[in-house]
Amino acid sequence: MKALQLTDPGVIEIREVPVPEIGPSDLLIRVGAAGICHSDLHLLHFPVKMREEPLTLGHEIAGTIEAVGSDVDVRQVGERGIVYLCWSCGVCRECISGNENVCLAAGRTAMPPCPGLGPDGGMAEYVRIPARSFVPIGDLDFLQAAPMADAALTSYHAIRGAREHLRPGSTAVVIGVGGLGHVAVQVLRALSATRIVAVDLGQDQLDLAKRCGADITLESGPDTARQILELTGGRGAEAVFDFVGVGPTAQMAVESVAPNGAYRMVGLGGGVPGVTADPAGGPGWPWGASVRKSYGGTRSDLVDSIALAQAGRLTVEVDRFDLADAREAFDRLEAGKIRGRAVLVP
Ligand code: NAD
Ligand code: ZN
User: Fold this and answer.
1) Which one of 33, 168, 229, 334 has the minimum C-beta count within 10 Å?
2) What are residue 118's phi and psi, to 5 degrees?
3) Cβ pair 146, 80 in contact under 8 A
4) Phi, psi (rounded to 5 degrees) for 147
5) For residue 296, how far is its CA from the centre of ligand 2 (angstroms)?
6) Binning pLDDT at 50, 70 and 90, where does residue 240 land?
7) CA-CA distances (angstroms) from residue 116 to 44, 171, 222, 290?
């Protein structure tokens, strides 16, 4: 079968590899669609090898069950679904509480095993998955379903965890209206009556934000925090969701979040928010505000995201590519030329 593999730092290629063998508790999935996340670009540019043998990328996977392991009795060949990306232990205190994204078995700062980041992922014709990670999607289109596995899951999780801040009359800022951000705007719209301010570098992205339900759009720059303060009577936004996470956006969040507000850092750009309060009341971190580094989401966040899509409340702007054209799709994502989510079809 064909698979898109990371062979060396910075090098991806389509390679011919064997169809994976499955164990007794696994499923073999015939991939229908696989989304490209900006995290795949971070991985591509990671300076050291993730593992010795080539790694098939792809953690946003939708497809059909092709084969069922001998110990699995709850799934059937032909079922359609997506893959929950936290391959957690399922039995630790966090997992049984539903917080599989912070599974204790993964250690303090590690993440649970994730397809395409350790085990082989779904940018291929077939992928092996643990049966537990399969989540049915009914008749949802594969191109729409694949981005539910991360773009929607992660956005939904960050927003659900901040919903007490999203009362009517509040303001929520979405920084970065890409694959995750344009979904986040729709999730905010569906779950709350908050006023949504979307921030991005590009006009196309800001236009997309408007179509997704943003009330106000702002071009990202050194003046953006001041503009947000102006829009909120000097107090700041009750919630700031940062889907970029570089130094300038972390700074923007620190300077525009309200007292007692929520800063949710999702983007993995390596920025560090300076959260020291300024006793003189200057532009620093306001009293009572909280910051959370948000990773993935729970299984129930995924089920909720799928339900939103099935109800027509969440539509991913998809840029479709054949698997054979993956290199071009990665280049376009890197150049900021993808609107919404790039999705590969094998
Ligand atoms: P993307 O490339 O699709 O979108 C990023 C958007 O941010 C683009 O629209 C871009 O124009 C915009 N942008 C870039 N710099 C900006 C700036 N300074 N100000 C405002 N906007 C700016 O990326 P994505 O797939 O949506 O991923 C977003 C980030 O989230 C990445 O860092 C990714 O690795 C991370 N991520 C984190 C998790 C998690 O669990 N924490 C999960 C998935 C993705
Ligand atoms: Zn666990």
Assistant:
1) 168
2) -160, -75
3) no
4) -65, -15
5) 14
6) very high
7) 11, 36, 36, 32
Q: Directed axis angle between helix 224-231 and helix 247-256, to 10°?
A: 20
pLDDT number for residue 323: 98
Question: How is the chain split into domains, by residue range?
Answer: 2-150+296-345, 154-293
Q: Count each helix (H run) and each strand (E run) in the chain, helices first.
A: 10, 16
Three-class DSSP category at 143 = helix
The predicted pLDDT at position 274 comes to 84
Indicate the pLDDT class of residue 279, thresholds 50, 70 and 90: low
Cross-strand partners of 216: 197
- Tokens encoding 228: 């947000």
The token duo for 160 is 């659900």
Cβ(184)–Cβ(157) under 8 Å? no
Measured by CA distance, the residue closest to atom 31 of ligand 1 is 267
β-strands 80-83, 134-136 pairing: antiparallel
CA dihedral angle for residue 139, residue 154, residue 269, residue 46, rounded to 10 degrees: -60
Cβ of 243 closer than 6 Å to ligand 1, yes or no, is yes
Question: Against a cut of 0.90, is the pTM above it?
Answer: yes
The count of other CB atoms within 10 Å of the CB of residue 215 is 16
Q: In the chain, how long is the greatest CA-to-CA distance?
A: 66
Q: Which CATH number fits domain 2-150+296-345: 3.90.180.10, 3.40.50.300, 3.20.20.105, 1.10.3490.10?
A: 3.90.180.10
In this prediction the ipTM stands at: 0.98
| Structure letter (DSSP) for residue 279 | T
Q: Would the CB of 250 count as within 6 Å of ligand 1?
A: no
* Ligand 1 atom 27, closest CA: 38
Q: Is the pLDDT of residue 295 over 90?
A: yes
Which overall architecture, per CATH, does domain 154-293 show? 3-Layer(aba) Sandwich (3.40)
Cα–Cα distance measured from residue 120 to residue 116, given in angstroms and rounded to the nearest whole number: 5
What is the residue-wise DSSP string for 202-226?
-HHHHHHHHHHT-SEEEE-STTHHH
Residue nearest to atom 15 of ligand 1 (CA): 244
State the pLDDT confidence band at 278, using cuts at 50, 70 and 90: low
DSSP state of 19: P
